[in-house]
Amino acid sequence: MARRTIGIKDVLPKLSPLLELLDEQQSELLIKHTTIHHFRKNDIIYAEGEPSSYLHCLIAGKLKIQKEGVGGRAQIVRVIRPVEFFGYRAAFAGQNYASGAVAFEPCVVVRVPIGTIMHIVQQNAKLGWFFIERLSKDLGRADERTVNLTQKHIRGRLAESLLFLRDSYGLEEDGSTLSIYLSREDLANLSNMTTSNAIRTLSAFAQEKVIAIDGRKIKLLDIGKLEKINRIG
Amino acid sequence: MARRTIGIKDVLPKLSPLLELLDEQQSELLIKHTTIHHFRKNDIIYAEGEPSSYLHCLIAGKLKIQKEGVGGRAQIVRVIRPVEFFGYRAAFAGQNYASGAVAFEPCVVVRVPIGTIMHIVQQNAKLGWFFIERLSKDLGRADERTVNLTQKHIRGRLAESLLFLRDSYGLEEDGSTLSIYLSREDLANLSNMTTSNAIRTLSAFAQEKVIAIDGRKIKLLDIGKLEKINRIG
DNA sequence: TTATTTTTATGTTTTACGGCACAAAAATAG
DNA sequence: CTATTTTTGTGCCGTAAAACATAAAAATAA
Fold first, then answer.
1. How far is A77 from chain B (nearest CA, A)?
2. For the whole prediction, is pTM greater than 0.90?
3. Where are the domains of chain A?
4. Residues whose CB is below 7 A of strand C
5. Do A48 and A100 touch, CB atoms closer than 8 A?
6. What are the φ/ψ torsions at residue A165 (nearest 5 degrees)?
């Protein structure tokens, strides 16, 4: 396999939304400490409980942010797509990682020492605003999620997850197949239910022609109905 | 009743954690637009869905931040104590309020137009950091809450709420009575359960001598046991 | 005061969902 | 290629918690 090595020059353009906010000196400082990392499917990018020491940016691939719950049951709290920054919240709050990051599929991730970032944030108001906006949106989504996961019934939660995956990772060229293939277990951990129930409910949706299943491939057949299930259960 | 009117001079010292970060000009600008508001028990400080146009600071009293869920069932997502800033997230995310703020008891609230704040944040990195820290901590708590509310059993969730209220509002002079008196319904909305179950479980705790109930007064008798229930259910 | 509404309390019924067991199928390892 | 592990698919059962039904107590209004 002749995979070309990805170098710093390849990822810098991806980081431009952030780099644009910096002056020459800050930009140089940041680039100097930037490192590139490759992960395979199911690799741990960082683990819950670990000291948080980097700002991460997902250049390519897909990954989940999850928390261990009661009896080791995982709950997926966010999913990340390229190009998105992640894994900085804990450091900003002065904590160890409260959740772990795991690759759904092969990922290319850039790391910048969080100390460098925090140093620049103290001086650069534009960069500060960059993070304020992201954190504010994430907090809104987290509250939304709390209510939905606790109050909706299983069918509503699964429908919501399917729509959420469509919004997060989009559809394939056919315009209806989710472009992420999750295990039933991941789908369950995203929707706060047991694997059995994810399987069961997915089958029910298929029988009702709301979706079509082909292994891990999920085709959304009737968005209207899916949205209705999402709303009223 | 001869209540002295609270004026801007009374609240400025309370705002010092924020004002200290500003230069003379910014500080003046902010003070000029600061207004003081009084709310009675159950008054709405702002409503879900409303355009967000102020940064709020709770000077005195106690209040809840809650979201409407399925079938109008409310979920309390945060509680605010003096002196704490709140109600700024939505504006930072460019959204209307995603949750509402309601007074648990009489409250004194200060409002600053959020435009003024955002204007200063664009220039003042220290102020930016002030909000980044808060948002980061809130987001961590929100994720934590999502997992606990979805995975723990009723007893664990109620025990957690009682400990949470102790941490948020403290205890009375006797060293064991929660210094906030919530309705059973609020307690239920905080713990993600029906009012009936909040009442039932509270009674069970009282019977087990973990707490003592006197109307809305709750005395924590056995913290160790309460923490154990919180952990293992 | 008396009347009305709201909150608290408790018992009964229903059901949504987790837990478990067991195959079949698929993926991975040897 | 075969052996082993992991994932997916179904059925059945038990139970935690919601839904429903009253009634007592407390708060609020008339």
1. 7
2. yes
3. 8-149, 152-232
4. A 71, 153-155, 192-194, 196-197, 215; B 183-185, 195-196, 199-200, 202-203, 213, 215-216
5. yes
6. -70, -35
Instruction: Tell me the C-alpha distance between B220 and B197, whole Å.
Output: 19
| CA–CA distance, A208 with A204 (Å, rounded to integer) | 6
B229 Cβ neighbours under 8 A, 6+ residues apart: B155, B156, B159, B205, B210
Which DSSP string do the residues of A139-208 spell out, in sequence order? HHHHHHHHHHHHHS-HHHHHHHHHHHHHHHH-B-TTSSBBS----HHHHHHHHTS-HHHHHHHHHHHHHT
CATH for the A152-232 domain, from 2.60.40.1180, 3.55.50.30, 1.10.10.10, 3.30.360.10: 1.10.10.10
Helix H or strand E segment including B86: strand B84-86
Contacts of A69 (CB under 8 A, 6+ apart): A75, B147, B148, B150, B151
Which structure tokens are listed for A101? 């990051």
Cα B43 → chain centroid: 14
Provide the CA B52 to C1' D13 distance, Å, integer: 51
Q: A7: helix, coil or strand?
A: coil
**Sheet order of strands, B84-86 included:** B35-39, B107-113, B54-60, B84-86
Contact A132 B137 (CB under 8 A): no
A185 touches strand D (CB under 7 A): yes
pLDDT truncated to tens, each residue of chain A (233 aa)? 445 678 888 999 999 999 999 999 999 999 999 999 999 999 999 999 999 999 999 999 999 999 999 888 999 999 999 999 999 999 999 999 999 999 999 999 999 999 999 999 999 999 999 999 999 999 999 999 999 999 999 999 999 999 999 999 999 999 999 999 999 999 999 999 999 999 999 999 999 999 999 999 999 999 999 999 999 87
Residue type, B132: I
Nucleotide lying nearest to A155, CA to C1' measure: C16
Q: Which CATH class is domain B8-149?
A: mainly beta
- The shortest C-alpha distance from B131 to chain A (Å) reads 7
Say yes or no: Cβ of A50 under 7 A from any atom of strand D. no
